[in-house]
Amino acid sequence: MRRKVTVVGATTAQRIFDKGFADVVLVDIVEGLPQGKALDMLQAGPVLGSDASVVGVNTYEETAGSDVVVVTSGIPRKPGMSRDDLLLTNMRIVTSVVEEIARHSPECVLLPVTNPLDAMAQRAYEVSGFPKSRVVGMAGILDTARFRTFLAQELNVSVESVSAWVLGGHGDTMVPVVGSTTVAGTPVASLIEPGRLDEIVERTKNGGGEIVALLKTGSAFYAPSAAIAQMVEAILLDKKQVLPCTAYLEGEYGIDGLFVGVPVKLGAAGVEEVIEFDLTADEIAALKSSASAVSELLEVMAKAG
């Protein structure tokens, strides 16, 4: 019997269905839209060799008993908007969605994706009442993938040769950890001159905004959905994979009571361990500054109720 994944977001549903290891429930409030998308995906099964089920629904009853629930619902960014501009609208949307999820799938692992990600993960944690291990946000995998992409392009090497981590909040204060970034084991700082490396770091921080400016009517979805699918696979297959994710910290990296992007061991129980590795003094300072930016968003949310 396959596991069950509920997804509020079609591209992610497709990636999970394609892999074939989980049945998928696609949720959308627009009548007919998730049903049509699900039917379209299902008919790709014979081509892809996937015998998984995928159904579209407009309510949450059919999501009951999900093992993992991915929350991407919210308004997308428009050109000129920051992730933080979405805060209060998406807070209300995430609150209502998570209430339904907690009611119908009280034992699931919850994966918030809605921006601003770290604040929405905190909201999902508070509203669901789930243990911290079962709420884990998607951000660091995407940010790290962007960083690795830009470095691979710069050096004309395979992305698989680039090892890197991006930590901190999913926004302008994210922290690409240059000190531990390597290409085939060689420190990247010895391969790319400092000024150019700084430009790549800044492009990584603004990676989502660059796509929003080009699309004009939405935000990125291919790379984020690939990152989500990697998290779902790590959980459902109990891979114990170490990935950069947004997790609730209680003293790790000197941060307490906040969801921030850090390396975690991801398995069947969700976040099974926060991995602490050595950072430079500057990187620690940047990570704490990023956490402070998340705290500011939480203060705004608290005032708004």
Write structural notes for this entry.
There is one protein chain. The protein folds into 2 domains: 3-134, Rossmann fold, CATH 3.40.50; 140-304, Lactate dehydrogenase/glycoside hydrolase, family 4, C-terminal (L-2-Hydroxyisocaproate Dehydrogenase, Chain A, domain 2). It is 43% helix and 20% strand. It has helices at residues 10-19, 33-42, 45-48, 87-104, 117-128, 140-155, 194-205, 207-215, 222-236, 281-304, and strands at 3-8, 22-27, 54-57, 68-71, 109-112, 162-163, 166-167, 175-176, 182-183, 186-187, 241-250, 256-267, 270-274. The strands form 4 sheets. It has a 5-stranded parallel sheet, with helices on both faces. Strands 6-9-10 form a 3-stranded antiparallel sheet. Strands 11-12-13 form a 3-stranded antiparallel sheet. It starts with a strand and ends with a helix.
In short:
The chain has 305 residues and is an alpha/beta fold. It contains ten helices and 13 strands.
Mean pLDDT over the residues: 95
Number of strands: 13
Q: What's the SSE pattern? A: EHEHHEEHEHHEEEEEHHHEEEH
Please report the number of helical segments: 10
Which residues form runs of ≥5 with pLDDT under 50? none
| CATH architecture classification name of the largest domain | Alpha-Beta Complex
Give a quick account of the main beta sheet: strands, pairing sense, barrel closure.
5 strands, parallel
Distance between the termini: 42 Å
Domains (count): 2
Silhouette: globular
Measured as a percent range, the helix fraction is 40-55%
Strand order of the largest sheet: 3-2-1-4-5
Oligomer: single chain
Using the CA coordinates, give the radius of gyration. 19 Å
